[in-house]
Amino acid sequence: MDKVLGLDAGRLASGRTVVKEYGNMLGPTVIFVLDELQRQMEEEEGKEAKWEVMMGFGPGFTIETMVLHAAGNLKKN
């Protein structure tokens, strides 16, 4: 999908990591991906928050979409 959308390598890494570790959990997958994104932000020094688009596809033709922007520093104090 990243090639079709013209995304840089690794932009979908968080989603792939979650599905690999936990499987497709439908709705809860989105929360797990957000947690993985935050974990990656904490590990990578100098990485700034960006706009993200998250999509969840369910049975039949169910789609949920969110556009998110992290305001400020995501690193825990």
TrEMBL record:
GO terms for biological process: polyketide biosynthetic process. Residues 2-70 form the Chalcone/stilbene synthase C-terminal domain. Signal peptide: none annotated. GO terms for molecular function: acyltransferase activity, transferring groups other than amino-acyl groups. It comes from the Eukaryota. Belongs to the thiolase-like superfamily. Chalcone/stilbene synthases family. This is Chalcone/stilbene synthase C-terminal domain-containing protein. It comes from Arundo donax (Giant reed). The lineage of its organism: Eukaryota, Viridiplantae, Streptophyta, Embryophyta, Tracheophyta.
